[in-house]
Write a structure and sequence with these properties.
Shape: elongated
Number of helices: 9
Distance between the termini: 177 Å
């Protein structure tokens, strides 16, 4: 009996074709949207096309013996196209906006290179963002290139510029892109919008900008204005720029540079147009100054506006150019108070001056001299009009003048005419005197008195008043200071006296009375002199002395060698440079004396270890180098005191210091150092140290007075 195989009655569905799978006759598979039926049993190749187009073994010429035949035709969507994939006939892919149908089986590489293997199945669009050089673009791709959106018409690989492939694109949307301020060395593309000057421009041709704005590659999109301040010949201006020139505003009609807006010439009339008339107040008129159109000035009591540029090159700018209506226009007539008439001063129209009791008003600009003073027309021009006539001509002119009868026209060289005239006020302490010709004058008072005055309301400081102590009305405050003044300013054994006014005087001992000097009280028992109690300001003060003496050592060498010392902020006293100079030996000598000062004070106030021995001599030092060091230091005592006060304020900002006390302490030390360098030893320096200790501890248990030969106290 013959066999009947049921499987031969129908096809066997095997699903998707699989490489390496065993297939037999009548098996049916699906591949890329199509169905195939097996006509020869085989094991599937890695590539379906090799089985579909199989060659009959040993056939010559080769004959195709396919293992599959197409059963049903269809299409399969493979998704987004990818490189390195095997694509078969009728497969569909999506690529950059459109769906493509494979018309030639192949292995993909670059889409633009494989474009002939595909045909458009469904043309669509896909926005890919900004255009990128070197990117692949397919049919329907949309890109933004500056302000314009383009649609790809032909698949291609982009070049360096979109314009390089302009035939492969079409404009999808005509737009704009604002690029901000125009700049040189930048690439601008079609429809780029830039701001340049006061206007907005649109690029009409892609280009790279040079140093100058290219008007052939831009058109004005929106005309506008931009204020660029004062006109400058060095600035490149653009259409719409507004500048101020003098008192007038101008706007540029075209790009220009160094084109004067106010000049009416072929070069400027096409560049600028007047935008607004205004005024620019320049203040008081100054001879020789250049002024621009629209500038407003005050000339004396009158106010003028410049009608054109005023400068020397135009022949203007003279004293009388205000008289020329082509240059100046009078805005406001008026007057201005110019105080006392002064020879040599430049007077302007409307100036009002006072001269010998009468007020005069200037009617012609001029420079004052002895031939045109008010009230005496010694010139062909009449320069002054009387504004307010005094009751009678007077001779007084300035505060403090005295009225006398004498030569009153000496200002013009008249040495014979008599009348009321003035005696100008003298200097402080001058004495009013009379000549043999009965002429009154002030003379400087000569102080040759041997009397020094002390009173409770006095001040121990001759720096601010060189006559301090020499006049009863301007006394010193302490007997000690007066005695030191005599010692420093009078020859030894000079007969001098210190007159002490009524009152109570607490003195820091010791007070050394110079030889030949007598201390005289005002009246018996009305003048009391006592040793001082501890002064509160000196309590805990030594730490600051130690600090400022350390600072002093930092610039001693500079002072005595006339080298500039950089002052601490707050020190406004100038350094004195015209002094005798010394060197490092002089600086070391000063340092040795300041060390003795410190050791003496520390031994008594802080239980210091060193108590320096006092040495001294009345024989002058023969080493002029050391003497110079003391003189240079003392000549700069005001600078040193101010420097130490400024240093303390900076170093101890929360501490309040009495600057006068610090100054007197410093002066006392520097005076002692100078004396010891003149005569050798440390006698005077230690006396300064003793003064400081007695100020801190009191002088009650010390000798209050030290007296030399031929002295007296009563």
């Amino acid at each position: 009996m013959s066999e009947f195989k049921i499987e031969r009655l129908s096809y066997a569905w095997k699903g998707e074709w699989q490489a390496g799978e065993s297939y037999k006759r009548d098996d049916v598979v699906s591949l890329s949207g199509k169905s195939y039926v097996c006509i020869e049993t085989h094991t599937a190749d890695a590539n379906f096309l090799n089985d579909l187009n199989a060659i009959l073994p040993e056939s010559d010429p080769p004959q195709i013996q396919p293992r599959w035949v197409l059963m049903t035709n269809g299409r399969s969507f493979r998704g987004t196209w990818e490189s390195g994939q095997e694509y078969n006939l009728s497969e569909l892919v999506y690529y950059k906006g459109s769906v493509f149908l494979c018309i030639e089986a192949h292995v993909s590489d670059v889409f633009t290179d494989d474009r002939d293997n595909w045909t458009i199945f469904a043309l669509h669009i896909d926005y890919l963002g900004d255009w990128t050089a070197g990117a692949d673009y397919a049919d329907g791709s949309l890109v933004k290139y500056n302000g314009i959106v383009y649609k790809c018409e032909t698949a291609h690989t982009a070049g360096g510029l979109l314009e390089d492939d302009e035939d492969k694109w079409s404009v999808f949307f005509q737009g704009r892109e604002f690029r901000g301020e125009w700049s040189s060395s930048s690439q601008f593309r079609l429809n780029d919008i830039v701001k340049f000057g006061g206007s907005i421009f649109r690029c009409i041709e892609t280009h790279s900008s040079s140093d100058d704005f290219d008007t052939d590659k831009f058109v004005i999109e929106f005309a506008g204005f931009q204020y660029d301040g004062e006109w400058s010949s060095e600035t490149l201006y653009q259409q719409g720029d507004i500048v101020r020139y003098g008192g007038t505003l101008y706007t540029a009609l075209a790009p220009n540079q160094d084109s004067d807006p106010s000049r009416e010439s072929d070069d400027s009339t096409v560049d600028w147009i007047k935008f607004a008339d205004s005024r620019n107040y320049r203040g008081e008129y100054s001879l020789g100054t250049e002024y621009k159109t629209g500038d407003v000035v005050q000339r004396g009591g009158f106010v003028y506006v410049a009608k054109q540029d005023i400068d020397r090159n135009d022949g203007a700018g003279s004293i009388q150019d205000y008289l020329d209506p082509d240059y100046w226009e009078l805005l406001i007539p008026g007057s201005v108070w110019a105080q006392q008439w002064t020879n040599g001063r430049y007077y302007k129209l409307g100036d009002v001056v006072y001269f010998r009791g009468t007020a005069f008003r200037c009617n012609f600009e001029h420079i004052a001299d002895e031939l045109n003073f008010p009230g005496d027309n010694g010139n062909i021009e009449d320069f002054w009009d009387i504004l307010i006539q005094a009751g009678q001509p007077g001779g007084l002119e300035q505060k403090g003048d005295l009225l006398t009868y004498g030569l009153f026209r000496s200002v013009v060289g008249d040495t014979s005419s008599l009348g009321e005239t003035r005696v100008p006020i003298g200097e402080q302490d001058d004495v009013l005197s009379v000549t043999d010709e009965f002429e009154v004058f002030w003379r400087t008072r000569e102080f040759d008195s041997d009397v020094i005055y002390v009173a409770e309301d006095g001040i121990d400081d001759e720096d601010i008043d060189p006559n301090r102590g020499l006049v009863k009305s301007r006394p010193f405050r302490t007997i000690k200071y007066a005695a030191q003044y005599i010692e420093d300013n009078f020859e030894p054994l000079s007969l001098t006296s210190i007159k002490v006014a009524t009152g109570r005087f607490e003195e820091i001992g010791p007070v050394i009375v110079p030889a030949g000097c007598a201390v005289l009280g005002d009246e018996l028992r009305s003048t009391t002199i006592v040793a001082n109690s501890p002064i509160a300001a000196y309590e805990n003060d030594l730490q600051y002395v130690q600090s400022y003496l350390t600072h002093l050592t930092e610039f001693i060498l500079q002072l005595i060698t006339s080298t500039r010392v950089e002052p601490t902020q707050g020190n406004d006293i100038p350094q004195v440079f015209r002094v005798p100079t010394s060197d490092i030996d002089g600086a070391n000598a000063v340092l040795a004396l300041t060390n003795d000062f410190t050791n003496y004070v520390e031994f008594r106030l802080e239980n210091g270890e060193i108590n320096p021995d006092m040495t001294g001599s009345n024989t002058r030092n023969t080493d002029q180098n050391l003497v110079n060091a003391g003189e240079a230091l003392f000549a700069n005592r005001a600078f040193v005191a101010a420097e130490i006060n400024a240093y303390l304020a900076m170093r101890f900002p929360t501490q309040d210091f009495n600057e006068t006390r610090i100054k007197n302490d410093v002066y006392s030390l520097l005076r002692g150092v100078r004396r010891d360098l003149r005569f050798s030893g440390n006698y005077a320096t230690l006396l300064a140290a003793e003064r400081y200790v007695n100020a801190a501890l009191g002088s009650q248990d010390q000798n209050l007075f030290h007296v030399r030969d031929t002295t007296g106290i009563r």
